[in-house]
Amino acid sequence: MKPTALPAKKAGIIFLWLLAWQAVSLSVHNSIILVGPLEVIRALWVQAAMADFWKTIALSFGKISLGFLLAFGSGILAGGAAWRFPLLKDLLEPLISLIKSVPVASFVILALIWVGSENLSVFIAFLVVFPIIYINTIAGFMSTDPKLLEMARVFRMQGKKKLLYIYRPALRPYLISGCRVALGMGWKSGVAAEVIGVPSHSIGEKLYMAKIYLSTADLFAWTLVIIVISALFEKFFLWLLSLAQEV
Amino acid sequence: MELKVNQLSKSFGTLNVFTQLNLSLHSGQVYCLMGSSGSGKTTFFRILLGLEEADSGSMEGLKGQRASAVFQENRLCESFTPVDNITMVIPGRSSRSRKQAKEELLRLLPEEALSRPVSTLSGGMKRRVAIVRALSIPCDMILMDEPFTGLDENTKRSVIQYIKKKTRGKLVIISTHQEEDVALLNGTLINL
User: Fold this and answer.
1) Can you spell out the DSSP letters for B111-150?
2) What's B2-66+139-191's CATH class?
3) B66 shares contact with chain A (CB less than 8 Å)
4) Looking at the complex, does the CB of residue B51 fall below 8 Å from at least one CB of chain A?
5) Which residue from A193, A147, A196 is spatially nearest to A170, judged by alpha carbons?
6) Helices A168-197 and A216-246 sit at what angle, rounded to 10 degrees?
7) What is the ipTM for the molecules in this complex?
8) Residue A74 has pLDDT above 70, yes or no
9) pLDDT in tens, A15-58
10) Is the pLDDT of residue A61 over 90?
11) Do B112 and B100 meet the contact criterion of CB atoms below 8 Å apart?
12) Tens digit of pLDDT for each residue in A130-183?
């Protein structure tokens, strides 16, 4: 198959599903139960004309991204330290297991009490992303080729160069796959937290309002916004990671 | 430097690699270590490099001496260029190291190979990068574990010339399976 035929085939499949979706929504004929793609686009168009739409996206994006970035940085630092000092790893293990096993909803309620609704999504995104990055960092460090480490020892390589040339390539695939999972999870749980906490000017608040007013078109429109933003952020962040590898 | 190996023994479980090995090795000499596979050449190198401990015996003259090595496998960072692979082991600032690395690599490799990731080079080219790396750092003793693997005759001869030039005054131990290498290197044969 020609390479140009692949995107055309993909677009054709997506178009077919959109047609099916529109057909089902027409047959249901109830805009509370199901709306078609045309109504979703119309709802999105109406929303996009309002300044509040962009402010809402900017605020939610800023908070969830901040939570993600804080977790990314501290996850790498904590993971690196835990790999270097096994005692620290043992100490952190119950905490990481606890964060991983406690349902996000429980943390959201707790966080509402601790940090209030305004910074809720920062905290929740951090909490969901941190263990993923932490665990992947440890796995990445542990995957380092022992023969290269022996080589570094014989050649008395400086710590900075060892980090740059030996540990960084070993860490990279683990961080990339960790980020792929963490970015999706971070966005989903961040928005879920906003739905529960309902901070003002947040995507979660808009989803909550869509539920209150039974506006399925708005619900779908905001869901589309979440998917697009999280996909763009994932692409941008993974691109940044690939740049870091080349430096 | 003078390296004295006294009654050195090493075994792995029930397998005796070598027993009561005695050697006296001097700077400025090339020693060619020969022996069948499994005779302990690599293990002996690993003990000299401090990567393995002997079961018994002692070594004198290693303290404070800096060693360099060509490992049996190339042990290169595959996603980086040959220049990066040399620069990373040279102490000090990268800009100066890069210039030095490039000059050294050009003696054994074509220029177009220097900017490609090591993973894209042929086996023989990788071997030459590993050899240049070993000879790029300041050291007193150089250990080379079958350094000519994967090199054709002509390349091998130019590599030998390069090794001879770069190791003057140093203690060099090279393991090989080819007896003719001893003569080419003007070396002293040690049968293990």
Assistant:
1) GGGTTS-GGGS-HHHHHHHHHHHHTSS--SEEEEESTTTT
2) alpha beta
3) yes
4) yes
5) A147
6) 160
7) 0.92
8) yes
9) 999 999 999 999 998 888 999 999 999 999 998 999 999 999 99
10) yes
11) no
12) 999 999 999 999 999 999 999 999 999 999 999 999 999 999 999 999 999 999
Which sequence spans correspond to the domains of chain A? 40-246
CB contact under 8 A, A150 and B51: yes
Instruction: Give this prediction's pTM.
Output: 0.85
Mean pLDDT of chain A: 92
Rounded-to-integer distance, Cα B145 and Cα B74, Å? 10
Residues B89, A166: C-beta atoms closer than 8 Å: no
Secondary-structure class of domain A40-246 per CATH: mainly alpha
| Residue ranges of domains in chain B | 2-66+139-191
Distance from CA of B93 to the nearest CA of A (A): 11
Q: Which of A148, A150, A154 sits opposite B77 (nearest CB)?
A: A148
Q: Who among A147, A158, A164 is closest to B91 (CB)?
A: A158
Percent residues over pLDDT 70 in chain A = 97
Tokens of A70: 């804080």
Question: With contacts defined as CB-CB under 8 Å, which chain B residues touch A164?
Answer: 88
